[in-house]
Amino acid sequence: MIGRGFLLCFVLFKLASAHSKPDSQPLPRPLILEYPSNEEIEEKQVVDLRCTSWRVAVEAGNLNPWKTIPLECAEYVRDYITGRGYSWDLELVAEEAGVYARSVELSGDGKDVWIFDVDETLLSNLPYYAERGFGLKLFDKHEFDHWVGKAVAPAIESSQKLYEEVRNLGFKVFLLTGRSESHRSITENNLLNAGFQNWDKLILRGVDDHDKSATVYKSEKLEEMVKEGYRIIGNSGDQWSDLLGSSIANRSFKLPNPMYYIP
Questions:
Q1: Cα dist. 165→98, 100, 115, 246 in Å?
Q2: Do residues 200 and 167 touch, judged by C-beta distance below 8 A?
Q3: How confident is the model at residue 15 (pLDDT cuts 50, 70, 90)?
Q4: pLDDT of residue 10
Q5: C-alpha closest to that of 171 among 83, 100, 234
Q6: What is the 3-state secondary structure (H, E, C) of 52-63?
Q7: pTM
Q8: Other CB atoms closer than 10 Å to residue 116's CB: what's the count?
Q9: Which of 130, 141, 96 is nearest to 262 (CA)?
Q10: What's the CA gap between 71 and 52, in Å, rounded?
């Protein structure tokens, strides 16, 4: 017997097909129209559904603060990060940001800025987090600084394409990161080795910034830009603390990151 969920999907698909236009754009993945009934769900499906709800709440900023991913979601987060889901979501964010960037009419005075965070926005630290359960272990600053010192984090390809596009469109590109000023040369080398070039500013935490939350620190740096006459047109980051606060961008683009939370 055909299940109710499958039948509903089939009927809606036929209706959509009958009224679709040749130039309509397909969705990046199927929509969930109906969850299976309790009788049809297996234990792993229950865990996956719960962890999907947890990830959506995390990405929406509705669930915070948190220090590690839930133990039951370790396998789910690993499969999401290493599978197509994570890369698809990254690509979708970059594509939408590109559409917006192309729609902006720049002033021509060199004061239109696009902000990029670095970690999990331009550079991927997945080799580091893969050894720590993709967020299952508590963050260890000493261990992470040791990883950063290797300067081998690869580029996030979709973000790299966006980076090149906004730069070629004429935006000033400012990199605003929570990394320490002591890691400037390491960060510059890593960015260059990963294929990023010709940024206009790289802003890192100074001595007076280390006790500030990311939201406060980044807000202060954005305020300084505005006072200098810059217009913050776009902002790309994987944490809400990259995007919220004062002097926010005309449009902000949140990249997915269910591995850690920075307030």
A1: 7, 11, 13, 26
A2: no
A3: very low
A4: 47
A5: 234
A6: HHHHHHHHCCCC
A7: 0.84
A8: 24
A9: 141
A10: 14
